[in-house]
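Chain A, query sequence.
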Amino acid sequence: MVALETGAGVFFVSDTTWTAADAPEGQEAATRILPGPAHGYMGDPACLLLRPRPHPLPYAGWLVDEPPPAAPFDRLVHATGTETPPPGWYRFRLPPGATKMRLRTPGQVRLFVDGEETALERDGDAYAAALPAPDAPERIAALRIASVPGFEEGAAIEAPITFETGEGRIPFGSWDELGLPHYSGGVVYTASVNLAAESGKRVTLDLGRVRGAVDVRVNGKDCGARIWHPYRFDITEAVKDGVNAIEMRVFNTLGPHFGVGHPSHHVFEGHTKSGIYGPVRVDVSETCTFDLTPE
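Chain A, predicted structure.
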């Protein structure tokens, strides 16, 4: 409750499911519902009172969770010139396993993957392309956009570039350097390892350096989870003679999403790093038994 100079009090509640009681004698309990926060994440409470500044690029409010502007502001453009801007080049790594890409631009666009031109087709108000070599561990895409006046540089791309993905190959290292710069979620690594299960031997899977939480399954059997170093798992009871299927699921934090996909001043150096760095190895060792019986 907030006490006013008049002696009256105002109760603040989050929604209509809350009620206020115990008002000062002779006064009615006034309630006021708090507005929702201006941001979708926690930050400086003072920021909740500020009206966010519109994004300077047209149709780019999705970067900061802004709704489309109302008329007549929906007709604003990036530049006031009437001359056709020079073509722009946009290069980026494709996500591992990406099979299709879709983008929206008012200009004419050409797509190159690893230097080879890839066909684009109209898909409603956007362009779509089937991406070659989805099993390649690394692919570089380049867009050449011949844009129109008012939609140049960053304004040439009107909405997030989206991908359809399947199984792919990803090397060890941080996801933000391997085509997943703002991905928050999980990645499943799989491997097939030839082993000889020997009685009395202990088998350990060591993932080396990891950024994130990991759980491991070997031949379909759970072998535990780790959320910090050492990322080492006893897989003795799960291994078998011959080929063993190892599955490592890694989950990161919201750091990459808030650091790149949804820019935020709450993300600091290192918060966007995720994945298995390795080295990954399987160790087979003798089981040691200590006899602590006093003589």
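Helices lie at 255-261. Residues 37-42 have pLDDT under 50 and may be disordered.
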